[in-house]
Write a structure and sequence with these properties.
The chain has 9 helices and no strands. It is mainly α and 231 residues long. It has one domain. It is globular and about 50 Å long. The protein starts with 23 loop residues before the first helix and ends with a helix.
Length: 231
């Protein structure tokens, strides 16, 4: 029987009689993991329509701060180890190896979809590419680390902890993650959905969040940083 990193059988997570009392810290953590990035993005769209270098840095800083707050919630608020969200569950070399495999699979699927949809040639992509390369690199790293922390590690594990079954604990973060890429249009949402399915599948299989972070970051690095390095 499969188990999650908290130690309880997954099949018991849907049993209301065995579901533990959910703390306020966990509810706060779920809000941060599911909605922090979306709220920050919408806030900047509405209140800072013209993205400048300083506003981009501020947005990234707020997202990193949300991730740091979530880690504090896990350790101090919930009193759980980071293994409860898939961190530190595998040896480093295994995480790196699986990360490269995730990147290879994701790149093949994402690259194919980008080619078929023509994604990457619109005004949104052009505006993103005008940012300094160092900032694009930091955004790519942030996407790999924070988005996997939020939408895979924490959200899936805690939604299951509060009593949602396997379907909804996976679907809710996946939908929010995909729709969160709305600024790139329908093609970006489709690409994010495909990548999210792959990343979610690997996380459920391996429960290795570090591998997911590496794989996610590598795909974004190849798509956004390498072309500028060699242009």
């Amino acid at each position: 029987m499969a188990t999650n990193n908290i130690g309880a059988p997954l099949s018991l997570m849907t049993d209301q009689s065995s579901t533990p009392k959910i703390s306020r810290a966990t509810w706060l953590g779920l809000f941060l993991s599911l909605f922090a990035i979306v709220v920050i993005r919408y806030a900047f769209v509405f209140f800072v329509p013209e993205i400048t270098l300083m506003s981009a840095i501020l947005k990234e800083t707020l997202i990193w701060a949300s991730a740091a707050a979530l880690l504090v919630i896990i350790r101090r608020g919930e009193g759980l180890s980071f293994k409860s969200i898939g961190l530190g569950t595998c040896r480093s070399w295994k995480s790196i190896a699986w990360g490269f495999l995730i990147a290879a699979v994701s790149a093949a699927v994402v690259g194919g979809l980008a080619y078929l949809t023509g994604y990457g040639n619109g005004p949104g992509s052009a505006a993103f590419e005008k940012r300094p390369l160092w900032l694009i690199t930091l955004i790519v790293i942030r996407a790999g680390v924070v988005e996997e922390l939020f939408y895979r590690g924490y959200a899936i594990e805690r939604l299951r902890m509060i009593g949602l079954g396997p379907f909804w604990s996976v679907t809710i973060p996946l939908v929010i993650f995909s729709l969160g890429h709305w600024s790139g249009g329908a093609a970006n949402i489709l690409i994010a959905l495909a990548a999210g399915i792959i990343l979610t599948g690997f996380y459920l299989w391996r429960r290795d969040l570090v591998a997911n972070m590496i794989g996610h970051g590598l795909v974004d690095f190849v798509a956004n940083v390498l072309p500028q390095l060699f242009s």
